[in-house]
Amino acid sequence: MSLVEMVSRHPLIDDVNEELVEAGRHAMLCSLFCTSCADACGAEDDGTHRDCIRTCLDCADICMATARLAVRNSIENVDVMRAQLEMCILACERCATQCEKHDSGHCALCAKMCRECAADCRKALPSVHNGHPAGFS
Q1: CATH of the domain at 60
Q2: Distance CA 95, CA 55 (A)
Q3: Is 114 part of a structural domain of the chain?
């Protein structure tokens, strides 16, 4: 099943903002990658991953909030949606940079996912404008 299909069933949506929905889908996945990476870093238990764990957990929370906002009819909250996308970009970039400091496979995958999520959020930003997210009436 498609997330775009689900969002298109909302009674107040004329035309789905596919860029925003895709950013939300990617943010949800990124949240899961970051959570898994933080757990794997903790299992390594060598004390060198403390900052990575914290950064991953912060990114996971921000990404999940972004995902949830991206699929809502947030007509009155366009400024919040734009700010959330910008925060997600920042969190993902910082998490990717932190993960790239480590040689572990899980950190490499997390960094890649964070970079992809940041790119999708950047792509969605221009679609959220003119007093409402594109696609919401």
Answers
A1: 1.20.1270.360
A2: 6
A3: yes
Can you give the pTM of this predicted structure?
0.86
Q: What is the pLDDT of residues 73-106, one digit of tens each?
A: 655 678 888 999 999 999 999 999 999 999 899 9
Sequence-distant (6+) residues with CB within 8 A of 14 are 135, 136, 137
The structural domain count of the chain equals: 1
Asked if 100 and 49 touch (Cβ cutoff 8 Å), the reply is no
Six-digit token pair at 27? 């943010």
DSSP letter for each residue of 47-86? SS-HHHHHHHHHHHHHHHHHHHHHTS--GGGHHHHHHHHH
Domain range for residue 41? 16-128
Contact 59, 34 (CB under 8 A): yes
